[in-house]
Amino acid sequence: MIVNCVIIDDEPAAIEVLADFADRTPNLSLLSTFRNPLQALSFLRDTKVDLIFLDINMPELNGMELLKVLIHPPLIIFTTAYTEYAIESYEKNAVDYLLKPVTFERFLIAVNKAQGRLMNKNPMVIDTTQTSSANEEIIYLKSGPKTHRIVLNDVRYLEKDGHYISFYLSDKKVVARLSMKDVFEVISKAKFIQVHKSYIVSIAYIKIIERHQIKIEDSFIPIGKTYRKAVHEFFKSDFYN
């Protein structure tokens, strides 16, 4: 998963170090850096950011004050030369508290913590990076204590059961607590179609379309009455002629 971050620090040298670390860290995208926290505030109101590396001692507006005025603050990793703010930082639910000078090893530990929190918060995360072979869409799906990397092109169909969605692949089934709305936010409607209130199928793996069901490999998926006409029209079927 790609974590979009910004750095807010009034010291140019500190920004340079953290920016270099961010550039060397896989799946971490540095959107911008700010020496002026007020300029950062304007940026944060207009841009989706997952993580802030935030200095505490800054003129005009310190890090703690900045955090208070953010209505929906992203994850925070505090960076400071002082230990006295450590307790307050954890009261603010900060991911981590990095003492300057920050080492790359310590930086990576903090970023890994942030990625873990994001996965817990979002059970399904899109990876916007592309595989070198086929421009494949990839998601990371949290299922219990494990996180699964799933190539959407490998998904045969999805089944809803209560508050859970099962992703059926050729060799396994992955179950996650999701809604149909969550799923449709990440899958391509050009590749998947909903055929029943509880089923979404991959168009690429459909073998047979009948009036009441669809066959995908060895599985038969029901076509709901509400979806039947739309499904057959989608495939230009002549069932209604």
TrEMBL record:
Keywords carried by this UniProt record: Phosphoprotein
Domain Response regulatory: 4-115
SMART domains attached to this UniProt entry: LytTR, REC
Name of protein: DNA-binding response regulator
Positions of the HTH LytTR-type domain: 139-237
Modified residues (4-aspartylphosphate): D55
Origin: domain of life: Bacteria
One MF annotation (Gene Ontology) recorded for this entry: phosphorelay response regulator activity
